[in-house]
Amino acid sequence: MGTRHQKLERHSIAFTLVILCVASLGGLFEIAPLFTIENTVEKVDGMRPYTPLELAGRDIYVREGCYACHSQMIRTLKSDVDRYGHYSLAAESMYDHPHQWGSKRTGPDLARVGGKYSDAWHVAHLRSPREVVAGSVMPGYRFLSDQRLNTDILPASLRANQRVGVPYSAEQIEHASEDARWQADPEAGFEDVLTGRYGDKINIRDFDGQPTRVTEMDALVAYLQVLGTLVDFATLDAEDAAR
Amino acid sequence: MTSEIDQASGQPTTGHEWDGIRELDTPVPRSMSLCMWVSIAASAVLWVLYPAFPFINDYTRGVLGYSSRTTVTQKVNQGNAARQAAFRIFADKTVTELAQIPDLKHRFGEAIGVLYRDNCSACHGRDLAGQANFPNLADAHWLWSGTPDDIELTLQHGINHSSEDTRYAEMPAFGRDGMLEKDEIAQAVEYVLSLSGSDHDTGLAEIGAGVFADSCAACHGDAGTGGLGNGAPSLADGAWIYGGSRDALHETLRHGRAGVMPGWANRLSPEEIRMLTLYVLWAGQDDKP
C-alpha cells in the first residue's frame, strides 16, 4: 500500500487530478439536487407569497430569533402529525428565504399555528407569556406593541425577495408600504385592493388591538396567523404529496 | 529514498528525510480502515434499497419502494381507525343524545381532557376557569346558551371568527365612537359596579341607571344579568371576562370589546368537536349546586 501511495504522490499532475475528482464528488452531492428543485417542490393550490405585513412579521420573527426555540416543520412522524396536523410540504416554505424549519423545539412547532388562537391571545401571550400559559419559559416581547412598524423599507424588502425567486409583481412591490398599513386597518376599506393583489386568503384585521397605529406586534401576529393556512389540502394530489 | 527499518522501534519509515529526521510509517489501524470500507459498502447497499438521488423528472426510488410520507400516512390512518372504533359512539349520536348518557364522563373524560389541553387550555385554562380576557367555561353562566347544540355550534364556527356561520357579538366603543359622553360613561360605570355589589358612588350610579337603560340594557338585559343568548355577559354575578375594576370598566366602555374564539370545524373532526362540547358541559354541571 505504501508504495502505491508513494507512486501517486510523486506524479503531481495525476495527484491533482485525483484530488479534483474526489472533491467534485462532494460538490456533486450537494449541488445536483438544487438543479432538480422544481421537481422536488409539490404542485399545490393556494400558496402565495407573503403580504408585505406578513413579510415584515417574518423579519421580526427572524430578528428575535424565534427559530431558536420554535420549529416550522411538521415531520413525517405519527406523533407530529397527530399533534400538529398534516406534515409540512416543501411547497409551504418555497417563498421562505431562508426557511424557518428550525431544529429545536423548546416551544411547540408553529408550522400550522395560523388560526388556532385569536389575535388577542397572541398579543397577550407575546407580551407576557406566563400570564396565559403557566410555566412557560418564553421571554416576553412587550416592546413589539410599542414599536411602530417601519413600512418604508417594505418595497425594498419585497424586491430583495423577488431577486431570490419570490414572484412579487411590480405592482405589489410598488404598493408594499400602504398594503401593509391597510392590512392592519379594516376600517381603511381597501379590502378589495388587497384581495385583488394577494387573493382571498388574507386576514385584514387590527391584529394588535391598537386601531390607530401599525406596530411590529401587528406584523408578527399577521405572520403567525397565516402560517400553515394557505395550502388547499383538498386539491392536493396524493401521489405528489406522498413523495 | 527507500523505506528502511528504524533501529530503535523496529518499524519501517516512510523514506522521507528532513535534516536527518525520519518519519515512522504508522498506517491507520486495520480495524479502522476496515470500518471505512464497510461503511462505503453499506452506503452502496442503502443507495440501492432506499430513495437516494434526484434526476430531472424523478428520483431513484430504491428497491424497497420506501417513502416516509406514505409510511406516516398509513400509521396515521391506522391510528384514526383505532380512534374511530374506540370513540364510535361520538360519531353515531348527536351531541344532545350524548349529553343524556350518564357514564360517558367516567369512560372518556380523561381522554377528552388531552384533546382539551392541546387545543383549548391556552385561552380557557387547564381547569376551564378562564383567565383575564378569556371566559370561564366552568361556571353556570353562559354567554350564548348552555344547550349541547349551541355549544357545539360555537365550537364549530367560533365567535367573531372568519367562518360564515360564526357567532357575532361586539361591545361597542361607546367612548371612542362618540356614542356616550365622558360623564355618562363614568355614571354608567358606577351603576354597573353597583349591580355586582362592588364599591361605587351611589349618586353617580343613580344617574347611571338611566344611561344603562338607554344604552346597555338592550344587550345585557334590564337587570344587567345577561343571559339573552347574544354574547353579552351578566354584569351582576361578580364574574368578569375583562376585569371588574373601575379602570377596566372605563376601558371597556371607551374602546369596546369583541373577543374572538376561533372556529374549529377545519381543524378538528366532528367527533372531536362533540367530545369537547361534552367536556365543557360536564365542567358547567360540576359547578351547579
TrEMBL record, chain A:
Q: Which residues cross the membrane?
A: 12-35
Sorted alphabetically, the keyword list is: Heme, Iron, Membrane, Metal-binding, Transmembrane, Transmembrane helix
Tagged with keyword DNA-binding: no
- One Gene Ontology molecular-function label: metal ion binding
Q: Is Electron transport given among the entry's keywords?
A: no
Q: What Pfam families does the record tag this protein with?
A: FixO (PF02433)
Where is the Cytochrome c domain positioned along the sequence? Answer: 52-228
InterPro entries the UniProt entry points to: Cyt_c-like_dom, Cyt_c_oxidase_monohaem-su/FixO
Looking up PROSITE patterns in the UniProt record yields: CYTC (PS51007)
What protein does this entry describe? Cytochrome-c oxidase, cbb3-type subunit II
Q: Which species is listed as the source? A: Roseobacter insulae
Automatic annotation (TrEMBL), chain B:
The question of whether Lyase is a record keyword is answered with: no
The pathway that the record names for this protein is:
Energy metabolism; oxidative phosphorylation
Q: Does the keyword Heme apply?
A: yes
Q: Which cofactor does it need?
A: heme c
- GO biological process per UniProt: proton transmembrane transport
Coiled-coil blocks:
none
Sorted keywords for this record are:
Cell inner membrane, Cell membrane, Electron transport, Heme, Hydrogen ion transport, Ion transport, Iron, Membrane, Metal-binding, Oxidoreductase, Repeat, Respiratory chain, Transmembrane, Transmembrane helix, Transport
Renumbered to this chain, region (Disordered) spans 1-22
Question: Membrane-spanning regions, if any?
Answer: 34-53
Q: Which residues form the Cytochrome c domain?
A: 104-196, 203-284
The note on the cofactor says: Binds 2 heme C groups per subunit.
GO terms for cellular component = plasma membrane
Q: Where in the cell is it found?
A: Cell inner membrane
InterPro entries according to UniProt = CcoP_N, Cyt_c-like_dom, Cyt_c_oxidase_cbb3_su3, Cytochrome_c_Oxidase_Subunit
Pfam families in UniProt = Cytochrom_C, Cytochrome_CBB3, FixP_N
Q: Where is the composition biased (Polar residues)?
A: 1-14
Q: Which domain of life is it from?
A: Bacteria
Q: Which GO terms describe its molecular function?
A: electron transfer activity; heme binding; metal ion binding; oxidoreductase activity
Q: What does this protein do?
A: C-type cytochrome. Part of the cbb3-type cytochrome c oxidase complex.
Record-stated family: Belongs to the CcoP / FixP family.
Q: Oligomeric state and partners?
A: Component of the cbb3-type cytochrome c oxidase.
Any idea what this protein is called? Cbb3-type cytochrome c oxidase subunit
What gene name does this entry carry? ccoP
